[in-house]
Structure formats: C-alpha cells, structure tokens
C-alpha cells in the first residue's frame, strides 16, 4: 500500500523517550496486589495529564483471585508451586497419591471447549488416561483452566502442571471469564491447580512410578476489590460516535515488564501522537488500560464490555489489543493473532510501518479479547516475537507473552526483557494500524476471507462425521453469503453503494460473523475461558468418534441445533448485505 504523507508525519513523531520512561518506572513497581495495581493506574493517569491528554478513570468493583507462593513436598524435598487464580487454599496441606498423565491427550469424553458441559452425571476418561480419582494429577505443560476442570471432572483432588523450564509460570486456572455472575459460579475451580518447574516435575514423575504420595500446600485469597481503569477518548472530526478501541492490561505478575509494561508504554506514546494529530482523525480512537487481567481472568475489560455494551455494539468498529510488544530479540512478525477478515489489512500495516513480512494465527481466548460476544472484529494482542530459529537455538519453549522470552509470568520479567528499538518498531505498527482503521473511507475488512475459512472448517468437520451428518446446507449458506459479499465489495469499491451504507454493512457483518466464529453464548454473556474451535456451534463434530452408539444420538442432536444456529447467523448477515445491494440496485 505504501505510506501516505499524513501517515509519514504520524510515524515521524514517534519517540521512545516517554514510553521508555514508563517502562523504567513500572520495572520498579509490582502490579499484582490491588493496591499496587491502583498505583499503576495513578501513574498512567498522571503521565497523561502531564501530556495534556484528558483521561477518565473508572473505578469498578472487580472479583479477583490473589494466589500466593505455595509449595510442593515430594520425596523429602520442597519445591515452589504457583497456584492459579481462584483455586481453593489448603494451608494445612493436601496429601494424595500422584498420578502422572503422559503426552498430549484429550482427557474426557463429552467435556471441553467443544461442548463446555459434562455429558451425563459423570465424565469418563478418554482411552489411555489413567484413573485419577482421589489422586493428585500431574502433566507436562502450563497450568490452564481446561486441565483443572477436566481433571476435576475425572475425580482428581488437585492438578499440577510441570512447566518445562527452571522457573514455574503463573497462570490462569479459572473457567469463567471476567467477574462472575450467579450463573458463572458453578465454573469456579473446585480443586487446586498449581505450576511447578521441571526439577519438581522429575520428582513427581518418579513418585508416580513408585505409587508415592505428595503434599501440596496452597495459599490464595479472593474477593471484590475496587480497581482503577483509565480511559482516553480522542475524538474524530467526521464521525466521532464511531470509535476504535485500543486496549491492554496494566496489572501484572510481579513487575511484569514484558507483560505488560511495554504495552502500557506503547499505548501512552500512541495516545500522545494521536492527540497531537487529532485534527486528522475521521473516527474516534478510545484507549483503555485494564486492571484485573491476571488475577481476575480479564475482569477489567469484561466490566467495560458489560458496562458499555450497547455503545460498543452500536459504534465500535474494531478492538485492538496491545500486549507484550517491545521485548528483546523479538524481531519477527510471523505469528500475529488476527481474525481472518483483517489479516491482509494488518499485514499491509506491518510491511509499511517496519518493512517486514508477517503471518498470523487465530486469536486465543486471552489478552482481553472480551468483545467477541458483542461481535467486534479484532486483531493483535502480541505483535513481534523471537524468530523460530532463535527460539530453537536458545532451547526455549513456547510461552504466550513477552515476545517469546521465557521470563513470562515469572519474577524475572524485569527491565532486561525490554528492548528500546524493538519497542519503537512495535509502537509504529500499532499506531499505523489503528490510525488507518479509524480513517478508512470504507472499513478494510475482507469478509470473503473469513467465509473461506468457514468453508474450510466445515469441510474438516464433514470429513470427521462422514455420512452421519450432512453439512451441505451449512456449506450452501456459506457459499451464498460469499457470493453476495463479493458483489457487495465490488459495489462499495465502485461507489454504487455509499461509504456510509457500506460501513454499516461491515459493522453488521462483524456483529454476526465474529460471534459465529468465536462464541456460543448470547451477545451479552461470556463463554467459558476455554480455547474455542472455529465455528464452535459445530465443533462437537470433532469429537463425534468418541461417543458410543448409545450416546452418539445426543451429540448429533446437539450438532443439528448448532447447524441451525450457524445458518441462522449467516441468514442475518445475508439480509444485511441484501438490503444494501437492494438500495444500490434501486438507485442504479
């Protein structure tokens, strides 16, 4: 695409001075305890004020789980253990036989991200999974909500994740998303889940082989805490009601430099530059710094999504998450989280901002993607990462944040993890993307690309189900909408449909199609915090072979209802396009 003159002027104004100052400040400020988190918000607000940028600080009450360092006793040795948020405390210790579950296995039948419920009164272990009833289950990997829930459903009394490195990582182990309502409390963890390092893991595996027991001591508190949530509104000059939401969390484990002081600093600099150039903005840009990400399972962004839901549904053109930019050695843009409909747009922004190629992946249910239920398209959450060859050379393993630095979610996520030059590049990537998106005459979303993804997903599901279920009606509905979307895109590009009408269609398509691809819940509730498979209403097809002849009928019934939900959503999307094309046809 290439940079326009106004974009060149925008990027030329980016400086590392102000953001690096905040990184250095936050490197000395733990932001885990609610009082420390509030001081972090005060620091952000004070810096915005010093820059002359108006800032509103909301003060929501958030439900937070505050895990404390705990310990594992095995074979006469004591090891550090890091509990997940909201898991129960056992200060007196929990003793049990340890069972090691080796390899990457699907633990239970009828339970998990595809179904999000227990099939029947009890879950049954998948083939090859040992009996963990009344035992402490251990596995290799990071601690997460689905493993705690699945092992709990199989009767385990605790779960231990054996991390692959020297330092165990804090992690989220709660299945509900944001502060829970009454309907969500059933998903609060009923058993403790902790992470330990690989040395402790070796002792656990040995204990499991010998039929030994271990003692797990956990410490955690929880409750409702007043929190601070700074928001900046930079008004557009032509359509100020519509806005792009740029956001990132400012709370952290320990001091959290790479996750997410660098992101907070990037947003501060983007706010400074956009405020200076606000006379060039067509739509508004809203920036929000979230509390409650780490200890509240995205509680801050979820509160905001709940509190301003109707405004977001009506006016938000996109959400962009800023998490873990500017980390050392992270010079590659080959693994960017993006939704299919904006992949090409983001790739162009990366190329024009920093001259590098990029590739992407489906956004995970993390990094405050709390707006999927509202149907808001989004991109980014991380940007640059350590190149794959460098990861292998260093013997690193996959972590979600910090650009791939394995100090993520540990006390070693300190100033050494950040890189001034890489942060400067990442700021430019974010700045150019949000500026272009907010200023686009016609919103830059490629719904044909998303519908192509839908078609591929349905083909995979059909391959699994065979002649037990016919996906042809769903495929036909996708193809019909795809043809209409192609016609719509051509009409908008030629001016047969006005920019205003075309943008309204883009927003309506976002509201319908994003929800189909990422959620099963209602528009104003949250799904469980499990990774959703593509087209989650249909994803039970992936597990069809795991149902018995006596129970597969229930799964097929669920699948038919899911197909109806998908076709219904596609129909609503089609109607939106048809209305616009009908108006264009009448005008012609």
The strand order across the widest sheet is 2-3-9-8-7-4-10
What form results from the Cα inertia axes? globular
Relevant CATH superfamily of the largest domain: Zn peptidases
Q: Mean pLDDT, nearest integer? A: 93
Q: Treating each run of at least 4 consecutive H or I residues as one helix, how many helices?
A: 15
The residue ranges in which pLDDT falls below 50 over 5 or more consecutive positions are 110-122
**Domain module tally:** 3
CATH class descriptor of the largest domain = Alpha Beta
Helicity level, as a percent range?
25-40%
Q: Please state roughly what percent of the residues sit in beta strands, choosing from under 5%, 5-15%, 15-25%, 25-35%, 35-45% or over 45%.
A: 15-25%
- Give the terminus-to-terminus CA distance: 31 Å
CATH architectural arrangement of the largest domain: 3-Layer(aba) Sandwich
Structural class category: alpha/beta
- CATH-assigned fold name of the largest domain: Aminopeptidase
Report the sheet with the most strands, covering strand number, pairing sense and barrel closure.
7 strands, mixed, barrel
Number of strands: 17
Return Rg in Å: 24 Å
